[in-house]
Design a protein that fits this description.
This protein has 78 residues and is of the alpha+beta class. It has a single domain, classed as Double Stranded RNA Binding Domain. The protein is 41% helix and 15% strand. The protein has 2 helices and 3 strands, in the order E-E-E-H-H. Strands 1-2-3 form a 3-stranded antiparallel beta sheet, covered by helices on one side.
């Protein structure tokens, strides 16, 4: 979550994105709610990437790419 960027919008709500994880975006009335929503969006994004065997960007020196092909194969078997 340290890689997240937040912006206060003109209407007073917040938008959060994680640029290294395309498609991760959240909107909420407060910064805290936006952080929580973005955390949930990131979790779902990671699940989809892992199930499909897609590479995940290395963020903060942490890589989740080890064994991705194994996870995708297991997911395909059902």
């Amino acid at each position: 979550m340290r890689a997240a960027n937040y912006e206060k919008l003109e209407d007073g709500t917040y938008c959060g994105v994680i640029k290294k994880c395309p498609g991760t975006i959240a909107f909420a009335a407060t910064l805290y709610e936006c952080q929580e929503e973005l955390r949930s969006v990131l979790e779902d994004w990671l699940i989809v990437k892992l199930r499909h065997g897609d590479r995940i960007p290395v963020i903060g020196g942490i890589s989740l790419n080890r064994g991705i092909s194994t996870i995708a194969a297991a997911s395909a078997r059902g």
